[in-house]
Design brief:
The chain is of the alpha+beta class. Helix content is 31%, strand content 29%. Strand 7 and strand 8 form a beta hairpin.
């Protein structure tokens, strides 16, 4: 069980749930400090700030953001909600978008599965999430999923969308 504490925006929309302001760690004297905040001090040296110091500092420079500290369980729940939101729906794209995605970076896991040509863009959206792209005949689609997703599952999602749009 991790004792890491995360600092997040309490009012962040789900699209920003993967974003952490920082983490809180315990230093060698047992003081909880905000990681990488020492450089923010102008006169106190390079020690990282304590959470109360950091909270006060951030409220002064950015009062519209409401920071809060969460534990690993809530952090994991936020990440899962973010992932679900990102992977929510497939969409049809133009042939121009398809070819741009194909050519912008070398395609990864490029295969033909059940008549569907699929690949994913190598650049990560966040964590292991990537844009998957598919072609069925003269129709083109994209979706977001893990770079480790089963190719047959990705192809099936594209085939289901193709059928849905054809109806």
């Amino acid at each position: 069980m991790s004792n890491t504490k995360y600092i997040v925006d309490a009012n962040a929309p789900i699209s920003k749930f993967h974003v952490t302001e920082s983490i809180i760690y315990t230093d060698s004297e047992g003081v909880e400090r905000v990681a990488y905040s020492g450089a923010l001090y102008k006169t106190k040296g390079s020690l990282d700030m304590t959470w109360p110091e950091y909270e006060k500092y951030k409220a002064e420079i950015n009062p519209e953001v409401s920071l809060k500290v969460i534990g690993p369980e809530e952090h994991d729940a936020r990440i899962n909600l973010y992932r679900q939101e990102q992977m929510k729906e497939e969409q049809e794209i133009s042939s121009e978008d398809y070819w741009w995605l194909f050519e912008c970076l070398p395609p990864c896991r490029w295969h033909k599965v059940s008549g569907v040509e699929v690949f994913h863009v190598s650049e990560r959206i966040c964590f292991d999430l990537v844009q998957w792209v598919g072609q069925i005949g003269d129709k083109y689609y994209k979706l977001v999923d893990s770079d480790k997703a089963e190719l047959s599952d990705i192809a099936e999602r594209f085939m289901n969308l193709d059928k849905k749009l054809a109806a």
